[in-house]
Amino acid sequence: MHVYRSMILNAPIEAVWSAVRAFDSVAAWNPGVVAARMETGTATSVGSIRHLDIVDGAVFRETLLELSDAQRFYTYDIVDCPLPVQNYVSTHRFVPITHTNQTLGIWESRFSCAQDLEQDMETIVGDQIYVNGMTGLNDYLTGGDNG
């Protein structure tokens, strides 16, 4: 299945990319992540694995598959997590909105899950993870509640 969410971030692309570029920086801006650390490699090295401690006590382990400073995106897969998904690959992409000096944040993934869980995974991944994460990023960048 394909899950896609997008959001306007009230900050210029340079500030957004600076905040998210390091693969282990997610705990600074995502309210759902308590802690993030690199298990292997560096925060910008393809093939590196990050370990995320989630607010509900869950653990996610993810591999950085691709990172582009020129195109401002990173792609990762999930090595281990409590979600009932397989073959999960996600891209978090950022596009400058030059007219207003804002940024379009796009977070999407493709993965497999049991058909009877698709609606739940759409909500959990799309809204609870992606929308809540990008809302936290916007708050972080603008000095809101999470910043």
UniProtKB/TrEMBL annotation:
<dbReference type="Pfam" id="PF10604">
    <property type="entry name" value="Polyketide_cyc2"/>
</dbReference>
<dbReference type="InterPro" id="IPR023393">
    <property type="entry name" value="START-like_dom_sf"/>
</dbReference>
<protein>
    <submittedName>
        <fullName>Polyketide cyclase / dehydrase and lipid transport</fullName>
    </submittedName>
</protein>
<dbReference type="InterPro" id="IPR019587">
    <property type="entry name" value="Polyketide_cyclase/dehydratase"/>
</dbReference>
